[in-house]
Amino acid sequence: MNFCKNSLLLLVLFACSFLGACAQDTYPVNGVADQKHVAFVFTNARIYIDYKTRIDTAMLVVREGKIEAVGKALKVPVDAVMIDLKGKFVYPSFIDVYADCGMPEARKARVGEDGYPQFLSNTRGAYNWNQAIRPETDAYKLFSNDDKKADELRKLGFGAALTHQKDGIARGTGVFVVLSDEKENKCILKDRASAHYSFEKGSSTQDYPSSLMGSIALLRQTYYDARWYQQASTNPLDAEYNISLDAFNKEQSLPQVFEVCDKYAVLRADRLAKEFGVQYIIKGNGDEYQRVQEIAATKMPLILPVNFPASFDMEDIYDGAQPTLGEMKHWELASYNPWYLQQAGVPFAFTTSDLKDKKDFIKNVRKAIEHGLTEEQALRALTETPAALLLMQNQVGALRPGMVANFTISTKPIFDKDNILMENWVAGKQFIINDTEPKDLRGIYEFHVASLPVLKASITGELNDPKLLLDDDTAKAKGSISRNGKFMNISFELMRREPKGILRLSSDPDRMGSLSGKAQLPDGTWVPWNAVKVSELVAEAKKDTVKKVKETPGDVTFPNRAYGWHTKPTAESILIKNATVWTNEQEGILQNTDVYISGGKIVKVGKDLASSPELKVALAAGKTRMLDGTGKHLAAGIIDEHSHIAITRGVNEGTQAVTSEVRIGDVVTADDINIYRALSGGVTSAHLLHGSSNPIGGQTQLIKLRWGLTPEQMKFEQWPGFIKFALGENVKQSNWGDKQTSRFPQTRMGVEQVFVDAFIRAKEYEQTWKKYEGSKGKGVILAPRRDLELDALVEILNNKRFITCHSYVQSEINMLMHVSDSLGFKVNTFTHILEGYKVADKMKAHGVGASTFADWWAYKNEVMEAIPYNAAILHDEGVLVAINSDDPEMGRRLNQEAAKAVKYGGVTEEEAWKFVTLNPAKLLHIDSRVGSIKAGKDADLVLWSDNPLSIYAKALTTLVDGVVYFDIDQDIKLREEIKSEKARLTRLMLDAKKNGDKTQKAGVSFEELYKCDTMLKNY
Amino acid sequence: MLNLNKNTLFSILVLCCASSLFAQQPIPAKPQAKPILLLNGTAHLGDGKVIANAAIGFENGRLSLVADATTIRLDKSKFEIIDCSGKQIYPGFIAPNTTLGLVEVEAIRATLDNAETGSLNPNVRSIISYNTDSKVTPTVRSNGILTAQIVPQGGMLSGQSSVVMLDAWNWEDAAYKTDDGVHLNWPRMVFARGGGPEAEDAQRQAQEKGIQKLRALFNEAQAYAQSKPEEVNLRLQAMSELFASGVNQQRLFVHCDDAREIVSAVKFADDFGMKIILVGGADAWKVADLLKSKNIPVILGRLHALPMREDEQVDQFYQLPARLKQAGVLFCLGVDGFWQVRNLPFMAGTAATYGLTKEEALASITSSTAKILGLDARLGTLEVDKDATLFVSSGDALDMRSNQLSMAFIQGRKIDLNNIQTDLNQRYRNKYGLK
Q1: pLDDT value at position A10?
Q2: B206 and B169, same structural domain?
Q3: What is the spatial distance between Cα A1 and Cα A14, in angstroms, rounded to a whole number?
């Protein structure tokens, strides 16, 4: 370490004093010219000319920063410096494709910096309206060589890096540099090497976007804007001048690198890529193994970090109870991620990015190798793949004539545990990492220090990081050992014998390996010493290999957390016998009835179906199983019209009054435990809504609760699409604190105007497009700018998208019906609608449905006249009524909430049950598929232990598409499995701590529960 | 059955609101004038017993007769007889740990009287803020909750609670047991990950300091209680009775959920010889043996809650009562909040679905609650000489399908079961000409 510092200092001094003399061609020379054209010839090496080809006893000729020749028995140039590398290994230097060295740090914005809204970008000039869209940022212009960071990477074996400013959603271009200490002019290999994107707004202080779906919408709109701008550039007078869009267009031809923060975001980026016909290289997060099949199917290459999580310190049983099984499983499986991707044929490169301590890099790659990754693939991920991803394979990543002379010299194969990296040559310049090859000193020694009695000690530990263990019997002392360049410092603290104190030994540099030199006694006397190796560390070495024996890790489950599946479930053929069947059809509630399901559909409803010829065959073939429904109730699955489960990173994009461009469908997650919990309460479909913080919120997403499948696979097929509107206190920011008083609207008067304005703009927009489509100049003149916000509103005007509107008091309900009537659209559903009972007649006349709470009230001013009789009155007045949850807890007890309509207002049980099944299906336009029990409909069914409206009823089995996604007996088994799996992982973590692995304190990371009215979280 | 209810409801409405159809607020009932006999209902006594054809008599606000009508001979002439055939009779449900009357509209600051500023306020008293005219209270009692413990919130020592009857002209009238305990929110000991080493240190320090601060205060309070100093310190004075002995000893309600917090709180109380009641207790099942051995009862939080941890079983809270029952720990059910308290009966219903018998579940919102709050001499069961605080429901009151009150009495006073919501219901049913 000390040596390195010294040599670094020397190098820096050297570089500084001759600055201008030996650097770049265009600079004036201070003193005499110092151009050197000599060749360096490396002989007798084992050379990897690429990740898979090794040539032994080979020669490498380097001149002027490039490789001149490589191979066996080459002709040696006359002007060569000869370097013998007998026994050494030469590899192409590594390439880090996701570095940020030499980049100025982006100032991180604090959330809600001054607490006041910021509607537009603070960047001055003809740039994009949004501060997070900064494609005009060119890393090559910002690049300022930071040798501290370059040196850090060189020491790991890296010779080149793609570096860019990791800030914003469209981040601009990256620059490809060699990791030299030369002036920037000599480091840049390619100026505009890549273009970068992410879903993170970074340092932008602007409010929009505040959510993940907002980021996605912004990027999507930017693609459309850029395309429009490209067309407009031929008619400059028709459009505006926009530096950002211009830059965005110009960098489309570069490799497109997209950073994501989890496995589902890989799939989100892929959806965007397909929409715009672009190819992304994904900078992943390390959890891709959890959805490896789907990620492989995207065909996108990955850039992988190796920041494997530290194990939890599980010694304390209370703290140890907090980490989730999912987190514990990820600890175990993260280092298998490269192996999983290798198996799935996904091309990937490694990066040091995201590592807290870059020194862990090689150790972690080695761990991945221990866990199945081949060394060849590991090397490929650091050389050929990154080079190819950046279209730089003719310059870096291999050692072929004409390529940049970036290579390392090491003592052992590069991923070997005992390997010492000696030198890293960057663009033909030598950087010494270790100037002495450390001898393996490990063994048991007798130390003879002057006339003192013999001290017995062993040297253990890593080759490059030895440890001194004293033999207790003779020494009764503590000791330490360290390297200082070529010197070795050893000290003994003598406690029980003379001379008491600390004895310091230094080995002579020229005697390395034999261990002898000068020592100083505690009293300061100088004496000679030597140490004799008496035996090897046999026992220790053995222990080491035993430890390495690979244990089989736990399965990846779907999702990879508690209650996940080992294999994805499939649809069954089931005959449910002799149940009380709540058909929700004209037949009503049928006693002692059978229901046969197959292929995901309800096939037949009737009595004694087992004796029908069709079923007899199926049952005999053993392809259909029987489920006894005696004494039980079979009902259609519950549909929650208003839910916020399974949504990731923000339910609201409440930063503007109109955000119809954002889509919940972009941010569905399949990992939310509340999906499973809802299934346990008999829910089979949930309508995932944007929050209620603005009048025109985002597009909603209907899902089926197919626990274990991917977000895309959960989406309800062929569904018209809805959008969330909202009225009242949330949209006028009444309960957001005293600073939020400037975003329009702040009153119900303003809310009306937002709707009127938005729909007038939408109509004009539609007209503009119609005019364009019908004009003779179509394709010649500039097409109108596509506006995703208005597109969604046009869909509403054309009955292609439907509204569910958060609403409370009668005045605003009345208002929206007036606005919609006057502007020619319909409100499909009023959700919450707690004062609906006051305008039930008007709602009936408008034809709008109601989706309400059973008994919530008193949480804010606008719900002070909410009554639990609301549902009953609306129903009795002829309005289509549903009861929803808006809450993951209540979401799994909706059967009980429906029962409250029996208690408050005397709705019949049969009708009350429809409030959570058939009626929400009708409101969502899916009643032809779900919501009742009828042949031909989807087998989304629940078997209840009792009358489903009763507090005493439990959901026993919940089926979606004929697949059993929840079963109460299976659930008990899963609990046992979770317990034993956690016990196994706890044991491993305790062992890891004992072995000296880094740990993190076990604690809790709180789940995010989404609910509409929690202002802190902006729902 | 339902039609009958509607009709009764309607007639009551008409009777009560003769002058103006929609009263702002039900009028508190007059004292019981005449002995009343509820005849032939099914009486659930609250202690596990059920009498099928019951004769429940009460006069001057006290129960005078609890018997099987088929086995006794009575002089019916002295009673006003109410036929309860086919109906269910229950002791009034008791809601512990609620902010009813302290909060009117959650989002409006001006209506919030539940949490004083500062962290050590043992001297503030909830009874002072208790608003008998809250519009929320009548919506709660119409589901069978007739008594409630009104609890202050916020800080570490949030103040003293009082038990009130849910029908009164003012807080003095409402008070049933004033200053029945001091409430301590035990410092959070669950470690939150992800803030980096500095934040982790800060967390640890805050936690240690919190407990040190508490210990210092309790030491001082104990000394103060013994010495009766001349200069009054309101804080310490308010805590004096925590250190009294025998029946005079005030209860310390300790609010916490995590197992480590429970264990620490129990040890803390032990050191001071205090009588504590655990409130919340999500992890109580893990340390049930400790609670049992120390005789510490538990007021459970809302059962209709998601598990605290992702991996925990879906019905974690639903099963908690049965687990504690099995371990021999005394517990009752609560619903923290105010308007939400009207769903207390259904928490008991859930407990019955997940392992308790229906009568055990009933006890967890009647007799057990009374025992834990020290009200059992007069409340919690239908027993002679206890308060005539009870109600009649047309069906099982623990199930929302059938919880339909036809009448309710607080100390024999027949209370008005209407509320703003029934009024609005009627008003708009009339508007639309609905039944």
Answers
A1: 42
A2: yes
A3: 20
